[in-house]
Here is the input.
Amino acid sequence: MGPTASGKTALAQALADRFDVGLISVDSALVYRGLDIGSAKPDAATLVRYPHHLIDIRDPVQAYSAAEFRSDALLAMDEIAATGRTPLLVGGTGLYFQALRYGLSRLPEAAPELRAALAAEAGTAGWPALHARLAALDPAAAARIGANDAQRIQRALEVIALTGKALSAQQHGARERFDYRVLKIALLPAQRSALHERIAARLDQMFAQNFVAEVAELRELPGIDPALPAMRAVGYRQVWQHLDGQFDLDEARRRALFATRQLAKRQTTWLRGDHDALVVDPFDSGHTRRAERLVADFLER
Here is the structure.
């Protein structure tokens, strides 16, 4: 586990070279076909050498939920374990990891009309205003959700409207069965500045690889819409807005950089609260050897 650009894929490959593992992606952007450059998806040659489950399993116009991830991931883990290998899950989507380990509460199904009304209101007042409303109704949920995290604000307010109860009060149900022993390795940089430099360098590489053309091609898909989860991914949203003429490319890069750093901050905060995770600094020259020792000790137990 780790924030964006912390080197999760490279470490997973190193571990796969040494141990008999099967790789499973835990990333809400990598599930989508066509989201390649902006999601930092491993390239085709890498995926041939290091096959991953749960990459390129949905079209961008399709939704993919944490509940679907849990079902798909458990199936992949069982398939890997049946061959005598160890499942190795790699990614930065905390909600997916949480859903896998503990399951999800039984919340009401989406209400399209209510969602549309909330989206329309946000279009006028802005998502921070709806976040302020959420803070008044459910302070615990609002504390976990960013003021511009449209998808989660919308869902939280939707659940409250449908049930009359705070979302946070409904997310602590009985844990679902999970039959695997777990070793958690968290790639957490000691110096935030080093991660910020890597994020900026990777973003520049994405634009050099013609990230803008990738988004332009996605915009031509039938049924595509900027409100879809795939198009709300960090970077894709900002380039879409640039292609809409809202600002120039330099501003799109600046906004994408800011959004990526904010994502990394949220991921880091979540991981630091996971007290079962063993921390490895990805900028320490010996971090791969430390991770290998942790895995070797775990597999011997």
User: Anything to note?
Assistant: The chain has two domains: 8-103+178-300, 112-170. The longest strand covers residues 21-26. Residues 249-272 form the longest helix (24 residues).
